[in-house]
């Protein structure tokens, strides 16, 4: 399961607006990479990796303040541009791609990373949780790919990468909106890879397991929020369960640039996919048993979700705080820590 993405709910927006953009010195001849969901988390690390490989990079996300912070961190490493855009808005994504093609250059690489994570039992989730997840993590990659494809196909080459999750191959307990959206992303990206065969344009489905990006601070928690945080945050932070996100970013870029149809990042993800393929019914039953061990009853009278830092404050567990040290450190390094007052 990927717990990395720049988490944000989706709202309709008009056309993308440029954010302040320091520019490096890569030169007009360098290939252009567009990374959606790049203001923090894994998206930020992917943008840095592409800059290190000589690309001119356009980072896009909804929050202009976070984009400005990301550009400050990235500008010294190469030519970087920032655009505010909501991936759930097809018109905004189309306008963004058109703007980049006109003003910066042909998009050679597209990476879609934007995501949102809602943790809690299924009966604590509202319809809006599913709508937000699907708008960002299923429609987002579809909007992006369909916007850039005509340009890439006309040129006869291009690379499209969609960061999905092991949660899109094996549905984990207490992450139903997330898994629903990620299953859709896997289906789209995998089918697109087959449809583009022989065209010179490739589509790569990226299937991470748990990664240390500090996403537990940006996730939202429903039901018994402190209890949900108590299992999710350590799982997304402990080195034995999660992989270093910088190393993951390198492998993702390697796979996308090489045009691989699928990149599976962690041994646990690899095992999960194969076990599910060999014994799907048994896998579902086992996951059901695991789900029964997790907090079940939502807080009475409300389906309100709680942000990660608030859930941690309510939990007030020194043990959990110690278990999430690596994840908290990663959050600081990848802009995941919310500003004071949020």
Task: Outline the fold blueprint.
Layout: E1 17-18, E2 32-36, H1 41-52, E3 56-61, H2 64-74, E4 80-84, H3 90-103, E5 107-112, E6 118-119, H4 127-137, H5 139-155, E7 158-163, H6 176-195, E8 201-207, E9 211-212, E10 220-221, H7 225-235, E11 243-244, H8 245-258, E12 262-264, H9 267-278, H10 280-293, E13 306-307, H11 308-315, H12 318-323, H13 325-333
Helix pairs in contact: 1-8, 3-5, 4-6, 7-11, 9-10
Fill in the keyword field for this structure.
342 residues, alpha/beta, Rossmann fold, three-stranded mixed beta sheet, 15% strand, globular
User: What number of domains?
Assistant: 1
Shape: globular
Integer average pLDDT: 89
CATH architecture: 3-Layer(aba) Sandwich
Q: Note the run of SSEs as H and E.
A: EEHEHEHEEHHEHEEEHEHEHHEHHH
Strand content: 5-15%
Total number of helices: 13
Derived from helix and strand composition plus strand pairing, the structural class reads: alpha/beta
Spatial separation of the terminal alpha carbons: 26 Å
Order of adjacent strands in the largest pleated sheet: 1-4-3-2-5-7-8-12
How big is the Rg?
Answer: 19 Å
What is the CATH topology assignment? Rossmann fold
The percent range for helix content is 40-55%
CATH class value: Alpha Beta
CATH homologous superfamily grouping = NAD(P)-binding Rossmann-like Domain
Biggest β-sheet strands, sense, barrel: 8 strands, mixed
The number of E-state strands comes to 13
Low-confidence stretches: 3-26
Structure description:
The protein has 342 residues and is α/β, with parallel strands linked by helices. The protein has one domain: NAD(P)-binding Rossmann-like Domain (Rossmann fold). The chain has 13 helices and 13 strands. The protein has helices spanning 41-52, 64-74, 90-103, 127-137, 139-155, 176-195, 225-235, 245-258, 267-278, 280-293, 308-315, 318-323, 325-333, and strands at residues 17-18, 32-36, 56-61, 80-84, 107-112, 118-119, 158-163, 201-207, 211-212, 220-221, 243-244, 262-264, 306-307. The protein has an eight-stranded mixed sheet with strand order 1-4-3-2-5-7-8-12, sandwiched between helices. A three-stranded mixed sheet has the order 6-10-13. The chain has a two-stranded parallel ribbon with strand order 9-11. Helix 6 links the parallel strand 7 and strand 8. The radius of gyration is 19 Å and the shape is globular.
């Amino acid at each position: 399961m990927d717990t990395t993405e720049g988490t944000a709910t989706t709202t309709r927006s008009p056309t993308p607006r440029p954010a302040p953009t320091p520019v490096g010195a890569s030169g007009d001849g360098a290939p252009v990479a567009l990374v959606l969901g790049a203001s923090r988390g894994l998206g930020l690390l992917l943008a840095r990796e592409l800059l290190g490989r000589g690309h001119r990079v356009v980072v896009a996300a909804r929050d202009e303040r976070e984009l400005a912070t990301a550009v400050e961190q990235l500008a010294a490493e190469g030519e970087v541009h920032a655009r505010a855009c909501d991936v759930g808005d097809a018109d905004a994504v189309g306008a963004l791609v058109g703007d980049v093609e006109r003003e910066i250059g042909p998009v050679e690489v597209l990476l879609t990373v934007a995501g949102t994570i809602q943790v809690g039992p299924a009966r604590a989730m509202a319809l809006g949780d599913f709508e937000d997840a699907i708008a960002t993590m299923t429609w987002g990659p579809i909007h992006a790919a369909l916007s850039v494809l005509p340009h890439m196909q006309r040129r006869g080459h291009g690379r499209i990468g969609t960061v999905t999750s092991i949660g899109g191959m094996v549905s984990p307990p207490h992450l139903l909106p997330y898994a629903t959206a990620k299953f859709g992303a896997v289906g789209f990206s995998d089918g697109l890879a087959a449809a583009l065969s022989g065209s010179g344009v490739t589509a790569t489905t990226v299937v991470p397991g748990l990664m240390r990006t500090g996403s537990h601070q940006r996730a939202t928690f429903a039901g018994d929020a402190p209890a949900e945080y108590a299992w999710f945050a350590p799982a997304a932070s402990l080195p034995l369960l999660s992989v270093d996100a910088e190393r993951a970013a390198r492998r993702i870029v390697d796979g996308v640039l090489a045009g691989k149809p699928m990149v599976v990042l962690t041994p646990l993800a690899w095992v999960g996919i194969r076990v599910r393929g060999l014994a799907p019914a048994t896998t579902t039953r086992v996951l059901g048993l695991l789900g029964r061990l997790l907090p079940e009853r939502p807080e009475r009278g409300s389906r309100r979700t709680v942000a990660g830092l608030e859930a941690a404050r309510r939990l007030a567990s020194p043990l959990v705080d110690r278990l999430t040290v690596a994840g908290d450190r990663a959050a600081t390094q990848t802009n995941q820590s919310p500003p004071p007052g949020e």
